[in-house]
């Protein structure tokens, strides 16, 4: 049974100094181009660009209330990164205390020149997290209208279950692609379906697949290339169609800085990969047939 797919989320991690370093007018241009094709959700994190990309993106929203109402912003918190921008950090670490989450959200609101964040995600499972403290903080932020929805990234299923007991987890963003198949069989995607949690995949095209020519990457790209001819589409679209084939309705968070590739990614929603073709790609990744 084929379910209606979710449109991709547009990832902004590479839009700032960690990638293309867009100017404000380039941000405006690509945001408006995305909106013109119906893509309105933009994925950020406090740390992107060593704590600079949120504010760079925010310059495009400053004084443009109408643009803000047309888009949805996801951002994340919980990682303390070692960088000259945060000289008081002595080591890379995680912090999901009430004080940290609240401070980070307040900073994100300032960076985006807005009074609400559409979705806040905890970026990594903090070994020291107190789930009741997180739940109380998220409830306070939601009640104040500062965040609209809540989720996590990169949690195990037991960590999700633990936190979900105290506060509804609405989204789970994890790495899922032909170079990282873990979520398909470690229970994460089953749990998303069971608990009605939206599954988002980061690095959906495959980590390093276009830059590092490993044996696995070569096998995957060769299979995707062959299927792209059969489906009359691009290799990138086959890589995404692989995710869209799964019944958990994975939402890819695409990371390209090229509008043409964003446009192409959106069209991947329309491709219905046959079961055997899904397994051809799976086998190209694992180098063996399923048992
Ligand atoms: N929650 C988390 O822990 C977490 C972690 C990492 C990322 N994320 C989110 O996920 C988003 C996507 O991650 P990602 O950027 O790794 O995803 P991706 O979409 O899998 O990869 C994008 C990268 O692949 C390149 N690329 C795509 N198609 C290509 C092609 N045909 N030939 C050559 N290069 C190609 C892009 O270059 P071009 O720009 O030149 O197209 C870009 O550098 C990020 O923006 C971020 O929002 C979240």
- For the termini, the CA-CA separation is 24 Å
- Specify the helix fraction band: 40-55%
Encode the helix/strand succession as letters: EHEHHHEEEHEHEHEHHEHHEHH
Q: What's the arrangement of strands in the largest beta sheet?
A: 1-2-3-6-7-8-9-10
From the 3D coordinates, which CATH architecture would you assign? Alpha-Beta Barrel
Radius of gyration: 19 Å
What is the tally of beta strands? Answer: 10
Shape: globular
Q: Class in CATH?
A: Alpha Beta
Please give the domain count: 1
The CATH superfamily bears the name NADP-dependent oxidoreductase domain
Poorly predicted segments: none
CATH topology: TIM Barrel
Describe this structure in words.
There is one protein chain. The chain has an 8-stranded parallel barrel with strand order 1-2-3-6-7-8-9-10, surrounded by 4 helices. It has a two-stranded antiparallel sheet with strand order 4-5. It contains 13 helices and 10 strands. The chain has a single domain, classed as NADP-dependent oxidoreductase domain (TIM Barrel, Alpha-Beta Barrel), CATH 3.20.20. The relative contact order is 0.12. It has 291 residues and is an alpha/beta fold. The mean pLDDT is 96. Helix content is 44%, strand content 15%. α1 (24-36) links the parallel β1 and β2. Bound molecules: NADP nicotinamide-adenine-dinucleotide phosphate. Residues 11-14, 43, 123, 153-154, 173, 202-205, 210, 236, 253-258, 261 line the site of NADP nicotinamide-adenine-dinucleotide phosphate (NAP).
């Amino acid at each position: 049974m084929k379910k209606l797919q979710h449109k991709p989320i547009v990832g902004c991690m590479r839009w700032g100094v960690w990638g293309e370093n867009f100017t404000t007018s380039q941000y405006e241009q690509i945001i408006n181009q995305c909106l013109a094709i119906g893509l309105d959700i933009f994925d950020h994190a406090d740390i992107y660009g060593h704590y600079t990309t949120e504010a760079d993106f925010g310059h495009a929203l400053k004084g443009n209330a109408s643009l803000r109402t047309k888009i949805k912003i996801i951002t994340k918190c919980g990682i303390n990164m070692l960088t000259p921008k945060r000289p008081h950090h002595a080591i890379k670490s995680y912090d999901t205390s009430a004080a940290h989450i609240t401070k980070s959200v307040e900073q994100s609101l300032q960076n985006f020149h807005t009074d609400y964040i559409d979705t806040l995600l905890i970026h990594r499972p903090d070994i020291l997290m107190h789930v009741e403290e997180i739940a109380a903080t998220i409830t306070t932020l939601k009640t104040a209208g500062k965040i609209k929805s809540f989720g996590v990234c990169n949690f195990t299923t037991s960590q999700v279950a633990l936190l979900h007991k105290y506060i509804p987890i609405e989204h789970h963003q994890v790495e899922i692609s032909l170079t990282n198949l873990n979520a398909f069989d470690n229970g994460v995607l089953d749990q998303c379906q069971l608990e009605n949690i939206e599954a988002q995949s980061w690095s959906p095209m495959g980590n390093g697949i276009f830059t590092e020519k490993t044996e696995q990457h070569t096998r995957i790209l060769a299979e995707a290339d062959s299927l792209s001819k059969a489906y009359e589409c691009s290799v990138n679209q086959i890589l995404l169609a692989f995710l869209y084939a799964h019944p958990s309705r994975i939402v890819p968070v695409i990371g390209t800085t090229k509008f043409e590739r964003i446009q192409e990614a959106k069209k991947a929603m329309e491709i219905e990969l046959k079961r055997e073709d899904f397994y051809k790609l799976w086998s190209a990744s694992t180098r063996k047939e399923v048992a």
